[in-house]
Amino acid sequence: METLVRKNIKNLNAYKVDAPQYEIIVNANESPYDFPMALKQQFCDEICHTDLNRYPEACFPELLKELSDYTGVYAEGIICGSGSDEIIAMINQAFVNPGDVIVSHSPSFAMYDIWATIADAKHIRVNDLPDHQPDIDTMIDEACENNAKLVFLCNPNNPTGHTFSRDDILKILDAVPSLVILDEAYIEFFGKSSVDLITKYPRLLILRTLSKAFGLAGIRCGYALGNKEIIDVLYKVKGPYNLNVLTQKIAVIALKNRVSILSNLEILKAEREKAMAFLEALNAFKLYPSGSNFIYFEAPQAEEIYEALLQNNILIKYFKDEARETGSIRFSIGTPQENQKILAIIKEVVYNGA
Ligand SMILES: Cc1ncc(COP(=O)(O)O)c(C=O)c1O
Are 315 and 331 in contact (CB under 8 A)? Predict the structure, then answer.
């Protein structure tokens, strides 16, 4: 078997993780709020009147109409995927030849690297400057010198919460010869989308998802917004029925009811600010401003905090830094009660040790 597997796949680890079984799960930047019961009921009613023996709409016209209404982008400039993860895969399939260069800032979302590895591309990860400011000048230099196919910008960034200014985004768009992928998975928490730049920059592609602000990680629905020319290329590599009928139906219901669903944003943003103020007052960590639904900080006690939370049936994300004394923590904003519990445990570790 070994000899049959492509060489760049041999050392990849399969993504085989069990769904976490904890009382509080704040490790994956999900929403703590489930889809409203009344809308689940509406979905069930619709499914009862849907022929499940038939293939779904291959190009999801009703969903495109709702997404177009939500984003202001014409339907021909939108494509959907089974999560934005699938769209990152499609981008690699459509644009990247083995050996091509992909540039991103680092740290950022892990899937950029995984899909680059599968495409057998050379992924140049440009380390952030101090304070997790992306090193934009070096990114531009690397993209230009290597004629990079793709440049990834994650705005707001996972895991650091960093947000790019309009000027930084324009500077990159004006300088590089590449397709620029602006990952706006968390944009609803930040509020400053770059979607208006699509008409001026034909090489800009924006990634979005219903997994975060819409609280629908379970249905796997992501989408990309761009110029029709790029979107048409992505359609060439899209699987025929990549979005099943259940996903299409729930996504349409969610978008039609977006005003009520997105009202949770204000609660989550207020909770984020409260949690930031609480952690700041502990004066024990390097805390980073967040434009997203999670908080990221570096702390000498990061491992102790992670362990103490685990013992209390709470799962957060812990990044071990072998090279330095400190590790980092990222946890998503939960319900007010969940946040209170998390913060109290963090405070206890800081004051009393683990
Ligand atoms: C920056 C970023 N982009 C994309 C995704 C993938 O989202 P989806 O659930 O749509 O695949 C995530 C998920 O955590 C993310 O953090």
Answer: no
